[in-house]
Amino acid sequence: MNSRAITKLQASIVIVIVVVAAAAGAGYYLLTPKEKPYITVATWGSTYLDALNNASVPFTQQYGIEVRAELQGSSNEMATKLIAEKGQPSADVFLGGEGALLRVYQAGEMANLSENVVPNLANIVPAARFPGDVYVGVYGGVAAWILRPDLIPPNLAYNGSWRWFLDPRLAGKLAVHDPTWNDQMSWAAALYGGDDHHYDPAFRFFKDLAPNLKFIFSSDDQATSALSSGEVWGVYEYGSIAYGMAQQGIKVQLVYPEDVPTVNGIKSPITFDVDVMGVVKSGKEDMAYKFINYILSPEGQYIYDSMLGNSPVNPATKAMPSGIAPYLLTGDQLKRAWVADLVYYQSIEDRLVERWQTEIVPLVGKPASTGTSSSSLVSSILLVSALAPAHGSALARLRWKLF
Amino acid sequence: METILNDKRAGTRQLLPLFPSVLLIVFVFGSALAYMLSTAFFEYRPPYVVAEFTLENFQHFFSTSLYLGTLYVTLRVAAVSSLLCLVMGYPIAYGLARSKSRFERSVLFTGVLITLFVGIIERIYAWILLLDDNGIINGFLTYLGLGRVHLMYNELGIVIVSTHYLLPFAVFTLMGSIGSVGSSLEEMALGLGASRIRVFVDITLPLTLPGIMSSVLLTFSLGVSAWAIPMMMGGGLVWMLSNMVYDRVVSTGNMPFGSAIALVIMLVSISSTLLLTALFSRKIKVE
Lengths: 403, 287
Prior knowledge:
The complex is a heterodimer of chains A (403) and B (287). Chain A is an alpha/beta fold and 403 residues long. Chain A has helices at residues 3-31, 47-63, 75-84, 98-106, 182-191, 200-209, 220-229, 239-247, 285-296, 298-308, 331-335, 342-360, 373-391, and strands spanning 38-43, 66-71, 93-96, 110-111, 136-147, 174-177, 213-217, 234-238, 253-255, 270-280, 337-338. Chain A is globular, with a radius of gyration of 27 Å. Chain B is globular and about 70 Å long. At the A-B interface, α3, α4, β7, α7 and α12 of A face α4, α8 and α13 of B.
């Protein structure tokens, strides 16, 4: 076979492959059922995803619109992504913390809501609505301390006061969120005479609390994991986290200290937080409005919020299942619900985070005592045996922040 | 002359298949890098990034003890992890390269390789089970009456997990280097009466210095840019630069300052690489 014959054979093979591929492609296109219209909702995973899936079933049946999920580790992470995706967003509806949605809105990537396109806006509580209806609260939750009463010694049982958390016997037994969560910072500010526009007192409080902290978490998973394993006895978290843990059979108690000073005219305020949903400018705004309207309906609220263990924002929603009751605010507590000013917080957050890392982090776990001599000895032995071959005499010169 | 031209044409043709990947790298990574570089010189007025040239981000970084301290911690953790990987990885790599038993080699190889099959997050959670105050190690120490050791939320915890994560990279890099040296020189030295230690110090070690350099550079660079390990093992108490980048970019939306920190990490990695290369090259030449 000469070289010209080989070239012809090669060309024939290429042509056959191209024809077969084209036929397969055309066949696939013709045989594949036409895709239903769909929207993508950016949401957290776990129970949030379950709640979304549950609520999506009746919505899809009613409107013929499929709902897909785009999972987010944190809503701040998703906000950064949506802003970067400018005009080509990976989600049409964004569920997240108010701060995250505010960033996306300020970047011009979200469409306003209105009662014309989301009629159920007219039926929800005022606390869930925001100026300009840039997004809407889909459930309300409290920020509070979640304790493990089964781990706390009886002589140290919680006594209803915020001062209890400063008891030296709780050294290394508590954990708090990092300062990117404004509810926690606002609550702490309130204790020492500040409010949601004055955060110096919050830093004073955390300096006093630091010896009792084991670590600082930046995600709910870290908090629940440490609380479940008994590594800490209490964390400052969302009430819905307590509900989730209780469902797993872990004994938890949600507590609201009663002696918090009056803030903005609210006596013993309880920091209240609504997670919000908004419409991303993606070209599918009409379908997204329909979805949000459904979630705000009494039916949607019950399905969605009962799964999460949060309070519905539509008062017409039927009573939540009895198991959730201990994690929702009662009528009296609702009067003390305080929504801190997030817009102001975001304008100073960068500086607060830096200040936290400089002033609070070095004090965490550096209490009256720094551990037993035996633990220090064992630690030193472990460290030296691990590092000696690599460092030799240089080891001694390294200053280690170990304990 | 014609032969040279033909050779050149053949060489160019051989390089053609590289074109798509080079283009992809330049386009994708180059544009991301260019974006990061440019943003680092922009101003941040919460919540907006303002495209006005400023050096304030770098000035702030290098004049704030918080960031300089974090840079120091980052370098320290990466350096210690890298050295531990070298010390622990060298004997394993030596065993893999020199062992005459196929079974022994398979066991070692699988043992090292298998750690790469498990995701980093799963591995960290496994370490948490071992290291936390109520974990297996502390349970054992308490049982022995030795008291608890704080192995998490400090640099020690980060170094332990980082070393575990980086070890396979060190082993595989060293294994290639040791394997390429060949055992004939060692056998000759042994035949001439040298002790095993002398053979190792005078022959094996100097000849594998390039591999040692590659291993240290690789593990150090990976260590400097670690994010998940310090995030989960540091418990918000030990910060490394990558965590600062994440925090500034994702949590507070300060992209310019986050980019500036990322640029510092990159420069630190490049300078460390150049420095180590210079040091090792000198050593190799001397040897």
